[in-house]
Amino acid sequence: MTTPRSAPIQHPHDATLSTGTDYETLAARFRPIFAEIARGAAERDRERILPHEAIAALKDAGFGAVRLPVRDGGAGASIPQLFQLLIELAAADSNLPQALRAHFAFVEDWLNVPPDADQRAWFDRFASGQIVGSAWSEVGEVAVGQVQTKVSQHDGRFVVNGAKYYSTGTIYADWIDVYAQREADGSDVIAAVSTHQPGVVREDDWDGFGQTTTGSGTTRFNDAVVEPRNVIDFARRFKYQTAFYQLFHVATLAGIAEAVQRDAAELVRTRKRVYSHGNAPHVSEDAQIQQVVGEIAAWAYAARAVALQAAEPAQRAYEARFGDDDAAEHAANVEAEIASAQSQLTASEFALRAATHLFDALGASATSTRLALDRHWRNARTVSSHNPLVYKARIVGDWAINGTEPPFVWQIGNGPGRGSK
Known about the structure:
By secondary structure, the protein is of the alpha+beta class. It has three domains: 14-131, Butyryl-Coa Dehydrogenase, subunit A, domain 1 (Orthogonal Bundle); 150-236, Beta Barrel (Butyryl-CoA Dehydrogenase, subunit A, domain 2); 241-402, Butyryl-CoA Dehydrogenase, subunit A, domain 3. Helices cover 47% and strands 11% of the residues. Strands 1, 2, 3, 4, 5, 6, 7 and 8 form an eight-stranded mixed β-sheet that branches. The longest helix has 34 residues, at 287-320. 44% of the residues are buried.
């Protein structure tokens, strides 16, 4: 089955929506920051230095508000333009788009609600530079569908209690997007919890071999206070959220591929040592090495093209939210989900292939920990492992063959009869 293509959405709210701006003007604001971030990326990876300064620079420059309409203090960037920026940021340091993933999803959720005082308050926070982290996943003795983190009333206040892992970006955040349940009735909610209180404890204990500085460790909530207005029914969550979250992985992979291309070209250009059985007196003139770098460049180009193409349906889904046509909105959400799944499959392949092929252009000196070139493969492999690609391929295949719509929300936990493993 062909991926659906939703029609252009007609709606009366164009002035209030973020439908795009001049990309080069937008990117020019951030490229000097990206360049500075890139200069320290290898050292941060080697020494596990958390990029607090890099995050602060992005916050101060208004990076977290680019999706807000201009009238609300943002840049009016479209979703494809956001991901184009994220590809550039990932090429500088692929940990940073991942660290900001929850923030932009939380912003996106508020972009999808009707204007009211709560939206105004959050828009003001985003415009002032405040960012949001994530705390959704639980580990240990937790079954699929079970949520142990609870929101309850205590001494006249709402409080959150529980522990989360893979809580990406929380170390850098002012707020945390917490997936929890109301203790009173078991309903699923999002609790927006301020990090500026003693009831929130954040730990940098993420032990993955890649994406080591994303701040993806444990977050504990011990009677963490949450305002009643910041406890939101999960059912309200924006409908293309899964596709939006996965597009961050695609953009990160495309940025990694671009970083590989950059490093391969630079190191070959400046390399002095040659092999006696090579093809030229300088490596940059060796036809076989040129071929290696050319292949890397082609894979990077393809990953970027796939990422940007896959972001277009998400923009259509966003605009369809305001189109007063439920069927068109549903078709747009299906299109966004299928596009994100297909792009993950291909971008993962391109980035991993490029990160491995890099070493075919260089000698054994390229394995030096000083260069930290292995981070490209480690980071790509880690990003590609977040949501199993085999399931993505099955979902796409089932859609192509049978027209089976993709799942829009999924969970992870212990299966029946398998204990805690």
